[in-house]
Write a structure and sequence with these properties.
Layout: E1 2-3, E2 18-19, H1 27-48, E3 51-57, H2 59-67, H3 70-75, E4 85-91, H4 101-106, E5 116-121, H5 127-135, E6 141-145, H6 161-170
Parallel strand pairs: 3-4, 4-5, 5-6
Antiparallel strand pairs: 1-2
Length: 171
């Protein structure tokens, strides 16, 4: 829910870009900003959900991973025993749990049972984080592509391509 920092690669679509983190200058500030973002998503899901599925790219994939843990959701005020969505599609994910160690410490030690599809680029310099998010889930599915930290149009192709086939097989 924060404006993207100046000079951020976040594209401005219909206005200024947005970010899950603001302009924190310390770990404590970053933790507070991330918790604000997570509470924002939980409040939105409580008012408008539940949802069949959720999609997150980069930091959004990290947010979805944290909120796919019922223990973390409960800490943030979610009053249901299951996450706000029944499946998650996580593309080029990064790990933000180190920003919010208080919530990460409350996360379930077991793997998340929520069905998940992970889209991972082999040339992504942040690929290790995507692999870490993948490891948090029990029986995750992965679609791997040769590109970087992106969702290239080549994955879709004219008929939905590999991405469409992976999503159809997943859901």
């Amino acid at each position: 829910p924060f404006p993207a920092p100046a000079g951020s690669p976040a594209p401005a679509v219909g206005g200024a870009g947005r970010s899950w983190l603001g302009h924190a200058e310390s770990a404590a500030e970053a933790s507070a900003e991330l918790e604000t973002s997570l509470r924002h998503v939980v409040a939105h899901a409580a008012a408008h959900g539940p949802y069949d599925g959720a999609f997150g790219f980069s930091q959004g994939a990290a947010v979805l991973t944290l909120l796919s843990d019922a223990a973390v959701c409960a800490t943030l005020g979610w009053r249901h025993s299951e996450p706000p969505w029944r499946f998650a599609v996580l593309a080029c994910g990064v790990d933000l749990s180190y920003y919010c160690t208080a919530l990460a410490d409350r996360a379930s030690p077991s793997r998340l049972t929520l069905p998940s599809l992970h889209i991972i680029g082999s040339a992504d310099g942040l690929r290790g984080y995507s692999e870490g998010l993948l490891a948090r889930f029990d029986n995750p599915r992965a679609l791997r592509h040769p590109w970087g930290h992106s969702l290239p149009i080549e994955l879709a192709g004219h008929d939905g391509g590999r991405l469409g086939a992976a999503v159809r097989a997943f859901i």
